[in-house]
Amino acid sequence: MEKKRNSFKGSIGFVLAAAGSAVGLGNIWRFPYLAAKDNGGFFIFCYIILALTFGFTLLVTEIAIGRKTKQSPLTAYAQINKKFRPLGTIATLVPIIILPYYCAIGGWVLKYFISFATGDGVAAAADNYFTDHITSLWLPIILMAVYVVATAAIVFGGVNKGIEKTSRILMPILFILICCIGVFALTLKYTDADGVTRTGLQGLKIYLVPDFKALTLKSAFTTIFDALGQLFYSISVAMGIMIAYGSYVNDDTNLMKSVNQIEIFDTLVALLAGLMIIPSVFVFMGKDGMTAGPGLMFISLPKVFAAMGKIGIVVGVVFFVMVLFAAITSSVSIMEAIVASLMDRFHWKRNTAGVVVLIYSLVAGTIVCLGYNKLYFELTLPNGTVGQILDVMDYVSNNIFMPIVAFFTCILIGWVAKPKTIIDEVTKNGEKFNRKFIYNVTIKFVAPALLVVLFAQAIGLFSF
C-alpha cells in the first residue's frame, strides 16, 4: 500500500479524468439513439433537467464520499457507516462485471478503426461485416486483449503519470474531433433513388425540435426514464468510479466548481454526439437508420461513411479515433475503480493489484468474445430482451446492481449519515453549496423514488 495516497495535481486534471470516465461509448451511440427515438428536443430537455438535479446529486455525493474517506468504493461506505459495508462490495462488483465486456466492445472499435485506417472502410459497410467479425473465433479475442493491455498500461502508470496525463491529452483531442465531425455533419446533403433530398440541417431539426403533437403521457414517461437510465451511462455514478476518483482529489479543491465543470463537459459531449450522428444517419439512411444499441455505431454509421465516397473513409478514421479515445478513458476509470479497491482492502501495491485485474480482464473478456460463437446461447431477460453473455452482464450491472447502489447511497446519505455529511465536505474551504435545497430534496425523496421505479421497470414488473 502506498504510504501517501496519490492525488490529482490540479482540479483540471481531475475534471478531465472524471469527464473522460463519463464520456464513453454510452454517450456516442446510446444518447443519439435515445434522442432520435424519444422525440428529440423533449428527450434533451428531460435529460438536462435530470442532469441538473438527479445527476448532480449522485455525482457530488460520490465524489465527496471519496474525498472525505480517501478510500475506494470497496471500503469507503464502511467509513461513513459500518452497517453499509456490503454496499461497497456491490458497488465494486459493478465495474468488475462491466470491465470485460466493455473491453470486448473496445476491441470492436479497434477493429473498425483498423479497417478504415487501412482503406477497408467500404468493406466495413457490408451487411454482414459486423456479425462476421464478432462471431469469428480469434480476431475479437486478440483485439480485446490489445485493448485491455492498453487500458492496463495507463492504470499501471498511476494517478498522475497514467490517468491524469492521459486525460489531459486525450480529452481535448476528443472534444476537437467531435466538434469537427459535428460541423461537417450539418453540411451533408444527399438525394436518394426516389429523388428525395435530405440535408444535415433537416436532421438537426429532428434532433433538437420536439414534436409536441406526437407527445403522449405514455411517451413522456418513457422519455423521462430513458433519460434517467442514460444518466447512469453518462456520468459514471453507481459504479464506484467517482468515489475512487474523488479519493484522489486534494482537500483544497473546489468540489462544487469541479462537479459543475464535469456536468457541463459531459452534457456538452453527449449533445455534440447527437449533433454528429443524427444528421449524418438521417441524410443517408433516413429515420430508419437509427437502430438501437451498438448497431448504430457498427452497422449504420459505416454505411453512412461509405455513402460519402472518398471523404467518408477519412471521416470514418477520424470518427473511430474519437470513439477509441472515448472508450479508453472510460475503461481506464472502470479498471482503476477495481485496482484502487484491491489496494485499499488488501494493502496491495498498484502493480500487484493491476496484474490481478489484467489477468481477470483477459480471461473474462475472452469468455465474452466466445459468447458469440463457442459459448453462444440465448436467454430471455426479465425486461423482455433476448441476449447472451455480454447482454446478461450488461443487464445485471446496469439494470440491477447500479440502481441498488444508487438507492442505498441515497438512503445512507439522505437518512442515516444525513446530507450535512456531504455538504460539510463540499464546503470545508468556505465554498458555497449551490442547489442545496435541490440536493436535500433529491437525495432524500426524489432520487430514491425514481430509482425504485427504474428498478421495477428493469426487472419487468411493468413497462410504459
UniProtKB/TrEMBL annotation:
It is found in: Membrane. The chain crosses the membrane at residues 12-29, 41-65, 86-110, 137-157, 169-188, 231-250, 262-285, 305-332, 353-373, 400-417, 437-462. Keywords: Membrane, Transmembrane, Transmembrane helix, Transport. It is a multi-pass membrane protein. It comes from the Bacteria. One of its GO terms (cellular component) is membrane. This is Neurotransmitter:Na+ symporter, NSS family. The lineage of its organism: Bacteria, Bacillati, Bacillota, Clostridia, Eubacteriales.
